[in-house]
Structure formats: structure tokens, C-alpha cells
Amino acid sequence: MALLAIEEIFMTKKEFDPSTFYMPAEWEPHEGTWLQWPQDRVYKGYELKLERIWLNMVEALHEHETVHLIVNGEQQRDHVGDQLEYHKIGLSNIDFQIIPTNDVWARDNGPIFVINEDGETAITDWIFNGWGGRFPYDLDDKVPAIIGEKLDIHVFKVPMVLEAGAVEMNGKGTFLATRTSIIDSYRNPNMTQEEIEKILSEYLGVKHFIWLTGAGRGECDQWGDETDSHIDIVARFTNENTVLYNWTNNLSDPRYKMFTKSLEELQAAIDQSGNPLTLVPLPLPEVHQTSTMTDWRKSTLADAAYSNYLIANKVVLVPVYGHRDDQTALSIIREQFPDRDVVGIEVVALIEHGGAIGCVTQPQPLGRKKDKGSFP
After folding, report:
1. Which of 74, 266, 351, 376 is deepest in the core (most CB within 10 A)?
2. Which of 359, 361, 364, 370 is catalytic?
3. CATH number, domain 18-365
4. Strands 66-71, 94-98: pairing kind
5. Interior CA angle at 311 toward 310 and 317, to 5°?
6. Is the pLDDT of residue 301 over 50?
7. pLDDT tens profile 104-113
8. pTM
9. What is the secondary structure of 127-167 as a DSSP string?
10. Which of helix, strand or coil describes residue 215?
């Protein structure tokens, strides 16, 4: 009987091979979305400045999927709960998790969730180093492992720096990214493209790579982009073959050269089946003299892009800027997602800090709940 009991214990355990998991496309079904609530750790008044944006995102999401809210402590949890009740959003489908963080950029420091053919969910925990050492990251780098422990799901620790905002997947194994945001001496020094691709294939299920040149640190610092041209402000898949790409006819835009090169590379690219991509242009908001805003930081120009959206269950949250192109961009995105409600969320206060909707949201795909003890 003792031998049988030991054998049964070993049968309940399972060794997980990361190569059997893959990162699904964002439009695939979600279990939920993770957000890190703004806090005054960044500077006094940060939470008050950004809170309305977070409330709008939660309101749009919680009827369709779980919203996981990372808060800094019990006091902030109580405050956020009060705000949700006061604004008549309520607490349905809201999950509070107390986890200390440095900032709000959950897409980049949070876990990249992966699933396998059995519907099991795991977390890939990549090294996060504050976008190549630009900002504090000691707390943010710990978030994926803490979430894995809290959810009791398996965590793959990956020996490479990666932010999810740098990654775009089409759900069929095709990976789209800029070289400058991954193959970077500030992130992955001494790693070749071949070595990086091997790790991406093993942990995200990549079968086919599309690399865009992007723009390096020197160029990005000039116009205020602190991500080294993440793909979410360059181009996004809307299905396995269609790509929305950002475009401007403004020759004075400092990013014009990068977008021109990116378009040439997308036109030459093929998908996992060898087919050319279907390309759809998306306008960029020209937030300079034509804007009603007069105090825009350089990073606003760099990061204000309608492509920085979140695709969720039955809804797409799109950043808008009070700009003449807002409605044009929303119409284009609605054409790409006709089965979802496309909701514009004004993000002027957030983009001043270098990001938008996609940067502060991290999807968790819908996977089969594991039985207790099925992980090693």
C-alpha cells in the first residue's frame, strides 16, 4: 500500500516542457487582464493624476473578463474598492492582488502567459531591467514569480531580458518585433540573434520570425521613446495575416525614417505559410503645434500611437488623444475587429509618461484550470 501511495503521488506530478507551450494571440479568449494601479511611489499625485484612466479601463473590461488589480497594500486596495463602488463600476469580476511594484507598466514587467494544447496555463518569467537600465525595476522584476505563486501555476524562469510590449504574436507561431528593443547591448549583451531566437522559440512557441529594424537608443533618446521602439508603437497583428502599421506623411516627424523602413520590411515579409502580409495603415496623432495641448513632453510625440491598444473579450480598448485623427483610427480598428466593441479611452495624462493602454495591461489567456498537485 505504501508503494502504491508513492506511485500515485508521482503520477499526479508532471514535468513541464516549455517548448510544448506557446504565447497565444491577444484576440484569443482571455481569462482576464492584469493592471498595476498607479501609486504615489513614483511621485506625489501620480495616483490621482492617472486613476480616472484606470477606472475607465476597469469599467470597459470587467463585464467581459476578470480584471486583476495589483495594488501596493491594503490601504490602496480599500481606496480602489471605494472608487469602483463610488463610480458605480462595482466589484464583479475584480480580483485584488497585493504586490509591491515600482510603476504601472504591467505589459513590460508582468508575466507573459503561455498555454499548451491541453489548455494548461504557465508563466514565462523574463528578466526585466527597466528598459535597459533606464528606470528602477527591483520590485517590478519580481512580479511574474509572485503572480505564479499566488495563482499556483507553473513559472518558467527565462535567462533573457524581454518586455512583452516588444513582442507581437499572431497565434500561429509568427513573431513580429523590432531588433532594437530585444537584440540590444543594454538588455541582452553578448547574445546573438540566433541565440535570442532559440530562446524565444523554446519559451513562446515561435516558429517564424519577422524582424523590423526599429530605432536604437541614440535615435529614441532624441525623440523621447524610452523603449527603443517597442513593436506596439510600430505595428500590430489583427489576425494571423493582417498587420496594422503606423504611418505619417509628416516628413518632419523624427520617426518618419523608422516608419518608412518598417513599411518596406513589412512589405517584404511573409507569414508562417509563406504568404505576403495584408497591410493596413493607421494614422499617427500629430501631437505638436496642431494639438490643443501646449506642454507635451518629447516622449508624448514618440509614444502617442493608436496601435497601443488592448484586445480583450468582446472589446478593444484604444487610446485616444483629443486629436482630429481619433475617430479615423477608431473606425479603422473597428473594421479589423467587427465582433468587438471598440472603446476609445482618453490617455493624455498617461502618454506624458511614455505609454498608453497596451503598455499598462497584460492579458492572461483562458486556459483549463489545473487540478491541485498537477504541477511539480
Report:
1. 351
2. 359
3. 3.75.10.10
4. parallel
5. 50
6. yes
7. 999 999 999 9
8. 0.91
9. E--HHHHTS--TTGGGHHHHHHHHHT-EEEEEEEE--GGG-
10. coil
